Amino acid sequence: MKAPTNAALRLLTYAAITISAVSITWLAAKNRIEAQRTAAFLSTFRDISPTLDADDAFRASREAVTIAGSPGERYTVKDGSTYYRSHTDKGYNGNITLLIGIAPDQRTLLGVRVLEHKETPGLGDKIDTRISPWIHTFAGKSLDNSRLAVKKDGGDIDSFTGATITPRAVTNQVNTVLHAVRDGTIASPPPSERKETP
């Protein structure tokens, strides 16, 4: 009787020590991981506007909004420029999350960056600035000076060789956000529906 009981106690002790060690490691790394995520997110804003003071006060300006029926976020800068975190599920492999900067005139794009995507390496991943400068195409464009659609759809934006779905998804979403800003149709959801996002 003693041998099985001792073995069970040893196993229980080992499990408790292992769980404690993993928990302590996770708790110790959690704050560092969150700080790195925040720094990476803020650096994307600075990539669009190098002079932007993207600090905690700027992050506090975040408000949940609805853009063409989909949830998003708006960040407002003192100079009147705005940044929208928006997504489209029209990518080749699903969801693409964008950060769209709009100048104080609320008509001209400061720039666009991709925050998240699962597009095909070697084709759709050219929306990522680490792979291709294609996304820089949007800086300075507006509804007044450009047709924000890919050339295959009669617009001014080039696609990638061998891929149209991904650039079409990004371009159409940028177009949707700019139209919503121009037309004043971006809405803030009721307080009961607002959710905190990282």
What does this structure look like?
- The protein is α+β, with helices and mostly antiparallel strands.
- It has a domain at 56-187.
- Helix content is 35%, strand content 20%.
- It has a five-stranded antiparallel sheet with strand order 1-2-3-4-5.
- The longest helix is centred in the first third of the chain and has 47 residues, at 2-48.
- The model is unreliable at 193-198 (pLDDT under 50).
- InterPro entries: FMN-bd, Ion_transpt_RnfG/RsxG.
- Residues 91-181 form the FMN-binding domain.
- One of its GO terms (cellular component) is plasma membrane.
- Its EC number is 7.-.-.-.
Summarize the structure.
The chain is an alpha+beta fold. It has a domain at 56-187.
